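Example for reference:
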Amino acid sequence: MSNRNKGIILLLLSAFGFSIMTLFVKLSGDVPTLQKTIFRNGVSMVISFFFVIYFKERLFGKKENQPLLLLRSTLGMIGIVLLFYAIDHLVLADADMLNKMSPFFTIIFAAFFLKEYVKPYQIYSIIIAFLGTLFIIKPSFSLDIVPYAAGILSAVFAGAAYTALRALGNREQFYTVVFYFSGFTTVVLLPFVIYGYEPMTMQQTIYLLLGGVFATVGQFGITLAYKFAPAKEISVFNYFSVVFTALLGLVFLAQIPDRYSILGYFIIFGASLYMFIKNKQVDKKRDNLLQRPR
């Protein structure tokens, strides 16, 4: 099997893992958002801890990488809290698709902070994707827009966190990064969770523990996928999570997105697919130029 196909399979596994996580977070019911978040990250922290110990890596990374690890963890923590709030208040597929705007925000942040060149077709894709979000959000001047705003902001913070990861590069192992992020989030949120803790049933506890397990599957899957193949070659397959999430929402929660949301899904996916195809064309042209005899 080629590395590209391995990357695609791992990305599909990641998408499925995150979709199952989203379902369990929703099924856990009226548990406070921060309480749900600490379960998600606490489980990831424990699992990644054993990976770090097994491979004899540093738990907290190298000294020179601390600023980027802290930045990535802070941004990621805020992004997850906002995502879980959106999941609690929106149709699952709506929350998932709004969060899938993160790659477009990554392009914007990478241009500003990493001085990466943004190509015209990437700008067109970002504009089209933003138009797609309007069909999902259906803007109105009421409090109903707050969960949608949380969904978009979760993508903003996720995009910023991925930009920090890009700046970090391969200087740390993926399980070290996951442990650092999960441990940081757990430590920061724990006092708030203890103060506002609400008792849970056994079923809610099991749902949140399973959500943490599948979140870890998703996190490891996406990290490993991009080690086998560049994001520009396989990232479009990450959007399968919206399909998985929509089907899970339909089967387990009887949720059916309205026609405007479905139109928004197609627009955002179309923008991502367009950028994916253009990236491939640009790479092919570059490779052809490099292979020409001089």
Observations:
- DSSP finds twelve helices and no strands in the chain.
- Residues 285 and 291 are 10 Å apart (CA to CA).
- The mean pLDDT is 89.
